[in-house]
Design a protein that fits this description.
The complex is a heterodimer. By secondary structure, chain A is an all-beta fold. Chain A is built from no helices and 12 strands. The relative contact order of chain A is 0.34. Chain B is an all-beta fold. The radius of gyration of chain B is 14 Å and the shape is globular. In chain B, the strands form 2 sheets. In chain B, strands 2, 4, 5, 6, 9, 10 and 11 form a 7-stranded mixed β-sheet that branches. Chain B has a 4-stranded antiparallel β-sheet with strand order 1-3-8-7, with no helix packed on it. In chain B, strand 4 and strand 5 form a beta hairpin. The chains are: A mainly beta, B mainly beta. At the A-B interface, strand 5, strand 6, strand 10 and strand 11 of A face strand 5 and strand 10 of B.
C-alpha cells in the first residue's frame, strides 16, 4: 500500500535557524507532491507543489522543497525560521489513481 | 473569489445522534473532498466527490456518508455518533485532482464536532 511518512511529529528550532521537515513516500509510481501549512484553528493552506519539471520548487513564505525520486523524498526547508512559521505542516502525496495520502503532520515550534 | 466555506463552524452533539455538515466549494471547482482531523490519527481522508459522484472513499465505517449536489456543494453525514467521532472535519475543493495538470486542494476552515 502507498504510504507517506513525515519523520518527527514535533520539530523545534530557534528563530533564524534552518528549518528541515522530512517527508518520504512509498511508491514506484511518480506522484504529485504538496506541502500544506495549518495555523491554529484554520484549514490547510498550500505552501508549494511539485507536479512535473524542475525538482526544486519554491513556495510561499520562503519555503522550498526538493523532489528526489531516488530517495522517494520531498523534504521541506527554509533557510531562516521566523516566529510566524510556527504551525503544523503536512506532506501530501497524490498518486495517479487519486489515492491521496497525507502524512501525519509535523508541528514546528520556533523559539525566540 | 470566495474561498471554501463550511457550516457550521462548531457543533456539539451527544452519542447516538446524527449530524450533517455542509461545504461550499470555490466557484468553478467540481471536486470536493472531506477529511477528518484528530490529534491521535492526524488527517484522514473520508471521501471525494466529483460531479455528484463519489469517486474515492477512505477507510471509514458506513456511518459516514456524503453527497454532492449539482452546484458542487457537498454535505457529509455521520449517523449514530460515537465519542471517537469528535474531530475537526475539513472540506477541500479543487478543479479536478487527478487530471493531467493536477490542481491543488483549497481547504475550508473546518467544522469542529464535539460528541458528548
Amino acid at each position: 500500500a502507498q504510504s507517506v511518512t513525515q519523520l518527527g511529529s514535533h520539530v523545534s528550532v530557534s528563530e533564524g535557524a534552518l528549518v528541515l521537515l522530512r517527508c518520504n513516500y512509498s511508491s514506484s509510481v511518480p506522484p504529485y507532491l504538496f506541502w500544506y501549512v495549518q495555523y491554529p484553528n484554520q484549514g490547510l493552506q498550500l505552501l508549494l507543489k511539485y507536479t512535473t519539471g524542475a525538482t526544486l520548487v519554491k513556495g510561499i513564505n520562503g519555503f522550498e522543497a526538493e523532489f528526489k525520486k531516488s530517495e522517494t523524498s520531498f523534504h521541506l526547508t527554509k533557510p531562516s525560521a521566523h516566529m510566524s512559521d510556527a504551525a503544523e505542516y503536512f506532506c501530501d502525496v497524490s498518486f495517479l489513481n487519486n489515492d491521496m495520502r497525507f502524512g501525519a503532520g509535523t508541528r514546528l515550534t520556533v523559539k525566540p | 473569489k470566495a474561498g471554501v466555506t463550511q457550516t457550521p463552524r462548531y457543533l456539539i452533539k451527544t452519542r447516538g445522534q446524527q449530524v450533517t455538515l455542509s461545504c461550499s466549494p470555490i466557484s468553478g471547482h467540481r471536486s470536493v473532498s472531506w477529511y477528518q482531523q484528530t490529534p491521535g490519527q492526524g488527517l484522514q481522508f473520508l471521501f471525494e466527490y466529483f460531479s455528484e459522484t463519489q469517486r474515492n472513499k477512505g477507510n471509514f465505517p458506513g456511518r459516514f456518508s456524503g453527497r454532492q449536489f449539482s452546484n458542487s456543494r457537498s454535505e457529509m453525514n455521520v449517523s449514530t455518533l460515537e465519542l471517537g467521532d469528535s474531530a475537526l472535519y475539513l472540506c477541500a475543493s479543487s478543479l479536478d485532482p487527478g487530471g493531467v495538470d493536477y490542481n491543488e486542494q483549497f481547504f475550508g476552515p473546518g467544522t469542529r464536532l464535539t460528541v458528548l
